[in-house]
Amino acid sequence: MSGDRFEHASCNFKSHYGSATLHIYSFGDHEEDNILCIEASPPAGDSPERAPLVRVQSACYTAEIFRATDCDCHEQLDESLTRVHQEGGFVVYMICDGRGAGLLTKVRGLALGDTNELDTWDAYQALGVEPDPRDYGRVAAVLTDRGLESVRILTNNPRKIAGLEQAGFSVEHVPLKIDATADSLPYLLTKQRKFDHLYDYSASEQPMD
Ligand SMILES: [Zn+2]
């Protein structure tokens, strides 16, 4: 929760995307108690009046590490890092795969997709798990520590917008549009129809492959 105590460390950070500062906020003893935050400055001479661009991403190791094709998580992270390095802003990364339910639940859910053709929402229900149990209290604590009160959040997920608004932030929504592929379209449609995501994938009649 936002009242959690944390330890903080930061360093200069160069990546494929450019130069930034890497922050680690540690809220406990376990690896998943760490939140990573990339902070990139706006271009020199740019004094933006708008709130900073912020992406809140939670881990999807299957896509981000092993490049799974059944979701858009790798592309969302890539696009977010690109835009934040271009415009200035923050990418806050939560180490909580399976939308906070953990890797074991995620893979059990994917297996139910294989065997029972359940989408991720129904698979989690069948497993007795909340479909999206993520809590954004620690993210709010990180953003507050970085001095933010207003954000432009790069997302399609209304729960992320509501989570930060409930934490007291002024939130402007910036859509994060990733083209569907033949593999990712079923998951993206589930996110739209059952998780109320704001980006409409039903128009993706001929998804890019
Ligand atoms: Zn994913």
Q: How is this structure best described in words?
A:
- With 209 residues, the chain is an alpha/beta fold.
- A hairpin with a 7-residue loop joins strand 2 and strand 3.
- It contains seven helices and seven strands.
- The protein has a seven-stranded mixed β-sheet, with helices on both faces.
- Zinc ion (ZN) binds next to loops.
How would you describe this structure in keywords?
single chain, 209 residues, alpha/beta, seven-stranded mixed beta sheet, 7 strands, 32% helix, 22% strand, globular, binds zinc ion
What count of helical segments does DSSP give? Answer: 7
Listing every helix as H and every strand as E from the N terminus to the C terminus, the arrangement reads EEEEHHEHHHEHEH
Reading side by side through the largest sheet, how are the strands ordered? 1-2-3-5-4-6-7
> Pairing-aware structural class of the strands and helices?
alpha/beta
Question: Mean pLDDT, nearest integer?
Answer: 90
**Distance between the amino and carboxyl termini:** 40 Å
> What's the assembly state of these chains?
single chain
Approximate helicity band: 25-40%
Taking the sheet with the most strands, its summary is: 7 strands, mixed
Low-confidence stretches: none
Rg measurement, Å? 17 Å
Tell me the fraction of residues in β-strands, as a range: 15-25%
Looking at the structure, what is the overall shape? Answer: globular
How many strands appear in the DSSP assignment? 7
What ions, cofactors and ligands are bound? zinc ion
